[in-house]
């Protein structure tokens, strides 16, 4: 079943989650001013699946049932699915101008699907069929999942069992005949507070004596012992005010991130997909991260389309739009954006088959996408600031424009090209200010892994020796002499 946007919102309301927002216990999250924009962004993913012109990329045919499911619950069957995913992300990025959060759960579903197959093949366990039963339910109910991978990690130079506090990585603290009890926390959970379920995965490679930390499982968002602590974002207070100072009032500037605490949460056997198989943790993390790294060429591409649009509009408002240097800077923004999008499509088109039958993106290209995103999002933002001007940082708030005593002055002295209403300049300025905030930038830097993680992966995949051999084959002296002779 494909949920409608309204059904998604209603289903969230029905959950009795324990959430803390701005340090206070929240009765409900759906209508909370700090969370509502993020709910709206996810609701858009549900809404577009019902729009005929978008159905091809927003939905897919389940390989399990043959039924139409949301692409956000689908297992990638080939490069075509991966390319459609990137197209879906660009579309949603354009429709929301922000992070729509469901991709983490999608990539987690695919990673756990793949790894359970490989564990069973090696160990003779039955995790995969168990996971397939869970996946059928996710597809049937069109659930929004929050993938949860990042542990707090404590002392970064120490492994899980070397920590002073053993809870710095999510772990099993009790084993029962009918399940396990887990304790710990996962950080930076995109969409955690407005998801139906949390799909927990280990966040690092583990050694054989770290079995308690090798836990992958699905936990309902309102399970006993699950606590969501919502993060703060730049300009949060403005969300309580309404008006144009918010920037992107309907969808927010980035995904809503939460810390999820597992305060001794019981997980029944049917929801456990790995428990102790340390040898597979590194591969699981790698699968998840590689898929997610390619995504950024899609979602950030869509977001940047709006930022480029806002910047171009601002140059018209300022009367600088015909200046050749200004136009060239816009081209530079477009060039960077299309480069990462092209890499994401390329990584998808070059996807290869995993042992379970699903499709993995080309890892080198996927890591390159994310590495470029850690730079290009900043650079596109820098050029936007450059073209939009210093008033981004100094303009008065909406209330000043509405004040009967000073409104006339701030309107008069912020009017640029008189063809445009001054409030249009302010509204677009606020949009640019908000979507290039530290929250957005840091997400682009660290989401799907920090830049050094991509560089490590790229070095591992680089086949430097093979490149040297290629060179030697080309310039081999004996061959060259023979060719001349
Ligand atoms: Fe999806 Fe992009 Fe948000 Fe990640 S950052 S969840 S890929 S929209
Ligand atoms: Fe992200």
What do these coordinates show?
The protein has 485 residues and is of the alpha+beta class. The protein has 2 domains: 5-282, Butyryl-CoA Dehydrogenase, subunit A, domain 2 (Beta Barrel); 284-469, Butyryl-CoA Dehydrogenase, subunit A, domain 3 (Up-down Bundle). Helix content is 50%, strand content 14%. It contains 17 helices and 14 strands. It has helices at residues 5-14, 36-48, 55-58, 79-96, 102-123, 127-141, 281-318, 324-349, 363-388, 391-394, 398-402, 407-414, 422-435, 438-446, 451-461, 464-475, 477-484; strands spanning 18-21, 24-26, 59-61, 68-70, 145-148, 171-176, 179-190, 197-200, 215-220, 226-230, 257-268, 272-275, 352-353, 359-360. Strands 2-1-10-11-7-6 form a 6-stranded mixed sheet, with no helix packed on it. Strand 13 and strand 14 (359-360) form a beta hairpin. The longest helix has 38 residues, at 281-318. The chain starts with a helix and ends with a helix. Bound molecules: iron/sulfur cluster and fe (iii) ion. Residues 99-101, 103-104, 190, 255, 295-296, 299, 447 line the site of iron/sulfur cluster.
Question: What tags apply to this protein structure?
Answer:
single chain; 485 residues; alpha+beta; Butyryl-CoA Dehydrogenase, subunit A, domain 2; Butyryl-CoA Dehydrogenase, subunit A, domain 3; 2 domains; six-stranded mixed β-sheet; four-stranded mixed β-sheet; 17 helices; binds iron/sulfur cluster; binds fe (iii) ion
Mean pLDDT: 96
The CATH architecture name of the largest domain reads Beta Barrel
Helix content: 40-55%
Radius of gyration: 24 Å
What's the shape? globular
Count of DSSP strands: 14
- The CATH C-level name of the largest domain is Mainly Beta
Measure the end-to-end span. 71 Å
The CATH superfamily name of the largest domain is Butyryl-CoA Dehydrogenase, subunit A, domain 2
Named CATH topology of the largest domain: Butyryl-CoA Dehydrogenase, subunit A, domain 2
Q: Quickly count the domains.
A: 2
Strand order of the largest sheet: 2-1-10-11-7-6
Number of helices: 17
Summing up helix and strand content along with how strands pair, one would put the structural category as: alpha+beta
Question: Which sheet architecture does the biggest sheet show?
Answer: 6 strands, mixed
Query: Low-confidence runs (pLDDT<50, min 5 residues)?
Result: none
Bound small molecules, deduplicated: iron/sulfur cluster, fe (iii) ion
Query: How much of the polypeptide forms β-strand, as a percent range?
Result: 5-15%
């Amino acid at each position: 079943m494909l949920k409608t946007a309204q059904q998604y919102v209603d289903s969230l309301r029905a959950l009795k989650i324990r959430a803390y927002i701005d340090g206070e216990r929240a009765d409900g999250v759906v209508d909370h001013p700090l969370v509502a924009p993020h709910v709206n962004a996810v609701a858009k993913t549900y809404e577009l699946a019902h729009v005929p012109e978008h159905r091809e990329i927003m939905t897919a045919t389940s390989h399990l049932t043959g039924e139409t499911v949301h692409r956000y619950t689908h297992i990638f069957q080939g490069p075509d699915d991966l390319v459609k995913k990137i197209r879906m992300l660009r579309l949603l990025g354009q429709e929301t101008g922000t992070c729509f959060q469901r991709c983490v759960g999608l990539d987690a579903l695919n990673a756990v699907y793949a790894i359970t197959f490989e564990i069973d093949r090696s160990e003779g366990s039955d995790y995969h069929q168990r996971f397939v039963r869970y996946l059928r339910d996710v597809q049937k109910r069109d659930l929004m999942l929050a993938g949860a991978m990042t542990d707090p990690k404590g002392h970064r130079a120490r492994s899980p069992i070397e920590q002073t506090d053993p809870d710095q990585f999510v772990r099993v603290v009790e084993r029962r005949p009918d399940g396990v009890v887990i304790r710990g926390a996962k950080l930076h959970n995109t969409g955690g507070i407005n998801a139906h379920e949390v799909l927990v995965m280990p966040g690092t490679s583990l050694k054989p004596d770290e079995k308690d930390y090798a836990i992958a499982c699905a936990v309902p968002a309102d399970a006993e012992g699950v606590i969501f602590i919502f993060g703060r974002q730049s300009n949060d207070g403005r969300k309580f005010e309404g008006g144009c100072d918010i920037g992107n009032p309907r969808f927010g500037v980035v995904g809503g991130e939460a810390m999820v605490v597992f305060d001794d949460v019981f997980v029944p056997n049917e929801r456990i997909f790995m428990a102790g198989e340390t040898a597979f943790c590194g591969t699981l993390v790698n699968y998840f991260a590689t898929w997610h790294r390619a995504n950024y060429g899609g979602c950030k591409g869509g977001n940047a389309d709006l930022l480029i649009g806002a910047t171009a509009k601002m140059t018209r408002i300022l009367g600088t739009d015909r200046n050749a240097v200004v136009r060239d800077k816009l081209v530079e923004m477009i060039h960077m954006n299309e480069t990462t999008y092209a890499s994401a499509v390329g990584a998808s088109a070059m996807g290869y088959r995993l042992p379970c039958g699903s499709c993995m993106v080309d890892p080198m290209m996927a890591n390159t996408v994310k590495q470029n995103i850690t730079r290009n999002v900043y650079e596109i933002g820098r050029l936007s600031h450059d073209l939009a001007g210093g008033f981004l940082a100094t303009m008065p708030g909406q209330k000043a424009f509405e004040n009967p005593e000073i409104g006339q002055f701030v309107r008069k002295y912020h009017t640029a090209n008189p063809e445009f209403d001054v409030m249009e300049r302010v509204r677009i300025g606020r949009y640019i200010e908000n979507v290039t905030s530290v929250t957005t930038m840091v997400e682009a830097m660290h989401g799907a892994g920090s830049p050094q993680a991509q560089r490590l992966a790229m070095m591992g995949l680089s086949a430097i020796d093979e490149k040297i051999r290629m060179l030697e084959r080309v310039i081999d002296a004996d061959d060259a002499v023979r060719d001349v002779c």
